[in-house]
């Protein structure tokens, strides 16, 4: 297992604060569309674990089918870092962001299936990774007073998954070639260790109670047999 330090993440409340800052965009109403775009980009990194390099390559056909948001995001080999296709189920929060983005951007701009989803001036020219990094950094400075980078949102996605599923599933969702790349997220924090002991204690108590119940029933059965004799 890797001895590297676990990646930095943000908690659920911070996720909500960051997404709200991205949505508001800190700009006048006339640029509210940018906030909706930025909010969707944040959701794709937090809820689907996209790398920023994958995000900027997304085409209309990756996110929508017949003008309806997809239920499962298929990241084709042409946009993934390791050129391996992977799929990620679309969360409820992400589905809502996709619908909002379609109604405010893609209905008002001339786009086709091969158009880039995220752009600044024209769908033939995608937003750049540097621009996405600056958008996330600016929003984080406003709500946290510190900078964060887009990859921290992917780290947050991965760490959250490991709390509810196995490492092999997380590896597939992240698109890691080797499971050792996924193991960096397995470093437990103090809350994880405390919960592990509490869960073990609960399990032991259940086993003890089951044993007592079994012993009592066995004793009652033995007494009944003796009485019958």
Automatic annotation (TrEMBL):
Gene Ontology MF, one: DNA binding
Alphabetical list of Gene3D superfamilies matching this protein: Intergrase catalytic core
Record carries keyword Transcription: no
BP GO terms, sorted: DNA integration; DNA recombination
InterPro entries to which the protein is assigned, alphabetical: DNA_brk_join_enz, Integrase-like_cat_sf, Integrase_catalytic, Tyrosine_recombinase_XerCD
Keywords: DNA recombination, DNA-binding
Limits of the Tyr recombinase domain: 5-198
Classification via PROSITE patterns: TYR_RECOMBINASE
Region (Disordered): 208-229
Protein's name in the database: Tyr recombinase domain-containing protein
A Pfam family this chain is assigned to: Phage_integrase
Keyword Phosphoprotein among UniProt keywords: no
